[in-house]
Amino acid sequence: MRERYCRVCGGWHQLDKWPHNCMPVQNLAQSDLPAPHFVSDSIDIQSMHDGQHYTSKAKLRSAYRAAGVVEIGNEKPQPIETPKTDRKAIRNELRRVHAEYNA
User: Fold this and answer.
1) Is the pTM value of this prediction over 0.85?
2) Contact yes or no for 11/2 (Cβ under 8 A)
3) Among 48, 49, 55, 60, which residue carries the largest CB count within 10 Å?
């Protein structure tokens, strides 16, 4: 005869004759489905690319793909500004330093 400690009443019960009032309370929020969690396609978002409102993630991503946009985050894209290199100023500085130290 195998017994196990009951967390509900604090006593010991036989496994094949477990009292009904000591059965654990089932969590009703859990589902009996094998995969209860799923990712929904519905969303209410304004596109960062064209400013339109979309209610489907698939439609938003297809609009991004059609425009050649890569989805990387939730910030508005900022234009990448690379400063122009002033080659003339660099050349003049190199000449000045060369003349100063090689004179």
Assistant:
1) no
2) no
3) 60
End-to-end Cα spacing for the chain: 103
Looking at mean pLDDT, say which of 19-23, 31-35, 46-50, 91-95 comes out highest.
91-95
Work out the burial of residue 60: count CB atoms within 10 Å of its CB; fewer than 13 is exposed, 13-18 middle, 19 or more buried: buried
- Say if CB 43 and CB 60 are below 8 A apart: yes
The 3-state secondary structure of 57-103 reads HHHHHHHHHHHCCCCCCCCCCCCCCCCCCCHHHHHHHHHHHHHHHCC
What token pair was written down for 46?
């304004």
